Amino acid sequence: MTGDPAFWDATTSFRRLRERAPVQQAVLPGGLVAWLITGASQARQALADPRLALDMRRLPDPRMGFGGRRYPDDIFSAEGRHLLNSDGAEHHRLRTVLAPLLSRTAAQRWKPYITRTCAELLDRLDAAERPDLVADYARPLAIRVTTALLGIPEELQHRLTGLTRSMISAPDPDAPAVHRDRTALFGLWSRIIGHKRRSPADDLLTHLVLAHRQGRLSAQELVSVAWGLYSGGITPTTTLIVSGAVEIMRAPGLREMLRDDSDADRLTGELLRITSPFPVATWRFALQDIAFGDTVIPRGGVVLVALAAANRDPELFPDPGTVCPDRRAGQLAFGLGPHYCPGAPLARLQASLALSALINRFPALRLATAEAALPRQGVLVERCYERLPVRTGATRAEA
Ligand code: HEM
Fold first, then answer.
1. What's the 335 CA to ligand 1 centre distance in angstroms?
2. pLDDT-derived band of residue 12, with 50, 70 and 90 as boundaries?
3. CATH topology of domain 5-391
4. Alpha carbon of residue 293 to chain centroid
5. CA atoms of 16 and 2, how far apart (whole Å)
6. Would the pTM count as exceeding 0.85?
7. Of 306, 341, 359, 394, which residue is least crowded by CB atoms under 10 Å?
């Protein structure tokens, strides 16, 4: 599935499935049989339904869901509890610890840092011989913001980035090299947390360490939540900025919107819908038979909500392939219900500022390679352009 253009193009692969049925069984690469939800109203229903659990331990027989096999997101559950593998009161407790640090008000405090970092990275992009929007701009921005938010000590950042990337992009989660990286990664997190204990600061990790001291988080939850935050935020934010830039290059009329903060925020909302950086939400498991119209997902069924498909359902989004920032219906790129992305305000702010800074500095920005030839990478739950070579053209000042 990696890099397969048919999988990549939500307009074709998911559209075909959605037209067949909004809820259907599908055999995934690797042989897992899952229930795929592609209709927008069914996706909303599923994301809000507490009978669809994320905690695999609640399945009467765990083999019911995974047929005894491991799948990529299992790397989390192997290491303990975090938000995306917990439900109900346990999930609520973890969420309460985290929510105040990622609120809209908390996100706004990052605006000066993000603006400064964008300007610095744009200088680098401008100076690059072959400017690449992924490596020179979007990814370093997302990494720097996440690292600063959490308060990762500088000397450990490089190792953390490397191990995280190799874990996330590993095609086989059971390969011996992945086991080695996993052990190294969790050893590294222990060092990072030890560092925070000795040198507390005004950052998210220090706050989590404090919550652990107060008995609100176990030691294992502390590591899992921290890593979930680190690994969960960087790739989709990078994808949103990069794929969003591609949409803007395709439709130059959109560039004007990036001159005003509130227009840029509205445009970012629509870019979230059209790019859907997480094409599918986390696995869910039916605790009992659940009806979606005439289709019943049986108890024990594995459920995948295809956010990218729902976000292009013409019943909710007429002419779904067109970027149209004035739509009324709410998009699902950040999910919905109890697991709605708590990083949404920060991610949205980051993308909006990054795209505005980019286009306002290089109004004539264009792709340096034909769109079809752009290298892509991705597993089922995530996908991103590997590189996005661009020609920056004259800066606004030069023009
Ligand atoms: C454009 C960027 C982002 C997108 C598209 C995105 C998307 C999502 C989605 C769809 C979910 C729900 C998954 C589900 O219900 O199965 C989610 C959950 C989550 N996201 Fe994000 N996310 C983004 C950025 C971030 C950032 C920057 C952070 C942290 C700083 C973050 C932290 C989390 C966490 C901790 C959860 C789990 C919430 C829970 O289970 O209660 N995300 N995200």
1. 8
2. confident
3. Cytochrome p450 (1.10.630)
4. 30
5. 19
6. yes
7. 394
Cα(314) to ligand 1 centroid in Å equals 25
Band of pLDDT at residue 3, cut at 50, 70 and 90: very low
Tokens representing 289 are: 């038979």
Mutating to test ligand 1, I would choose from 341, 348, 352, 355 the residue with most ligand atoms within 8 A of its C-beta, which is: 341
SS3 at position 115? helix
pLDDT in tens, 212-255: 999 999 888 898 899 889 988 898 999 999 999 999 999 989 99
The neighbour count for residue 43, using CB atoms within 10 Å, is 26
Give per-residue pLDDT as tens, 156-182.
Answer: 999 998 888 777 777 676 778 887 888
For the CA of 276, the closest atom of ligand 1 is: 5
Return the domain boundaries, the chain: 5-391
Pairing of strands 33-37, 302-305: parallel
In contact, 359 and 365? CB cutoff 8 Å: yes
